[in-house]
């Protein structure tokens, strides 16, 4: 699917059930279909990808949240029917049209995954602010973010296997990295719901706060993140992202390289 290079208009975002507010270095994305508990559609995911691809360079913090008392009820259950949702054919429709053309379906899922992948980019820090349920695709969206701030009302559930599917919106890797493969198997294959206190114990939440304090806690976190110089933040996130794949020696080398660049920049600016 071709990458969209123009930023979505407010109308396009609204049609996809999304809100976007950019204020200087901070972008706030709101899942905004509260009557369906912010259920997510293919169009929502491809518009999320478009937001990521067209984000102004100055943005370095992205906050993702849901309108109302539920972060997201996951995939819109209409996506499991044949026909169109939001003017786009559902995956089942694509398969029914041409059962042999799995490549088209794979491209569609890859386009959906783009909506989640960009949140790991080194030039931004992504924060999920989760209130109420984050189910299936909603849980995977929260897992795509660097930092999860949970209200004490948060309820996380990887429901896909219970529906005969697998989690395919890039959530399995961060889940295993955070909780370990054994716990991930237990969570996914029981499809049970984890409350905020357990989420914190399992390292699925970086911060848990009283529901009434969710917005102020996120604002405080954003202020702390903005207080760190942007270039140093980016270079540090790049290092942290490669740490688990590198052996110690390689990582130490990467630290030296990154620090030389930082020191050179400091000397350059102090001249
Ligand atoms: N898709 C479409 N509509 C949904 C929805 C969903 N995922 N979740 C809720 N809604 C709708 C309900 O049908 C209901 O609509 P009406 O008012 O027209 O009846 C409305 O939202 C409110 O729902 P509830 O009354 O159930 O709200 P609640 O606050 O009591 O419960 C909830 C909220 C716990 C999220 C519950 O609605 C629920 O369990 N929803 C289904 C969750 C689900 O199974 N999601 C799929 C996850 S798997 C996934 O995401 C798959 C993937 O990636 C492949």
TrEMBL record:
InterPro entries: ClpP/crotonase-like_dom_sf (IPR029045), Ech1-like (IPR045002), Enoyl-CoA_hyd/isom_CS (IPR018376), Enoyl-CoA_hydra/iso (IPR001753), Enoyl-CoA_hydra_C (IPR014748). SUPFAM superfamilies: ClpP/crotonase. Keywords: Fatty acid metabolism, Isomerase, Lipid metabolism. Pathway: Lipid metabolism; fatty acid beta-oxidation. The keyword tRNA processing does not apply. The keyword Transmembrane helix does not apply. Belongs to the enoyl-CoA hydratase/isomerase family. This is Enoyl-CoA hydratase/isomerase family protein.
